[in-house]
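Notes, p. 3: input format for complexes.
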Amino acid sequence: MTALLEVEDLRVAYGKIEAVKGISFTVDAGEVVTLIGTNGAGKTTTLRTLSGLLQPVSGDIRFDGQSLKKIPAHKIVSLGLAHSPEGRHIFPRMTIEDNLRLGAFLRNDKDGIEKDIRRAYELFPILGERSKQAAGTLSGGEQQMLAMGRALMSRPKLLMLDEPSMGLSPIMMQKIMATIKELKDQGTTILLIEQNAQAALSLADHAHVMEVGKIVLSGSGQDLLHDESVRKAYLGED
Ligand code: ATP
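Output follows (238 residues plus adenosine-5'-triphosphate):
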């Protein structure tokens, strides 16, 4: 079986600064794969390149059997790759429901869209309770839920989440992680970037540690959770 996503020797630069220096990894359908690593390791750059927002210097990205090179970002969404970006990017003056609907902008199946809005409200009840309110009135964690709900509205084959727990209280973070677990259990394929290595490794099937643009260690989430070097560097142990 070929992987849903295959990243091969990917290099990405901002001018002369090489931020991603030849990384390779795959994501199989139904898996949660996580990229962990400190600030500046190149994780966000990798996701932005997969989404078509940045062009690679070299390497290849194959998604669902097709090379994504030179395919524009909006077309990549329609192929089934959704991105919930770092910093959320919701539209604060629009209602919560309209923000969700934006995630379905490439779909025409009205009934399916209504069903998925109901599903988003089941997944995140607070969004349903406040559906007619401006999205800017939500707390940071609730806005994160909205960003995830909106990404799901495109019915993605692969959901990419960039730092979903960033800036959240411990309780809100647990809620977000529990939701990611629920999505995984429902069969959603997820590529997750997280600063919180403990939480990410606990639910990942496969994990890669990135340092200054390279993957320096790979393994199952459980293996890396118990790896001594990972524990020292990322889980705050001596
Ligand atoms: P973070 O968790 O802080 O987002 P990251 O692992 O996602 O970290 P990136 O944001 O991908 O890392 O950054 C990788 C490198 O590229 C860093 O050295 C960063 O300073 C640099 N970089 C990121 N964005 C730009 C940009 N727009 N122009 C120039 N350099 C950039």
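The mean pLDDT is 92.
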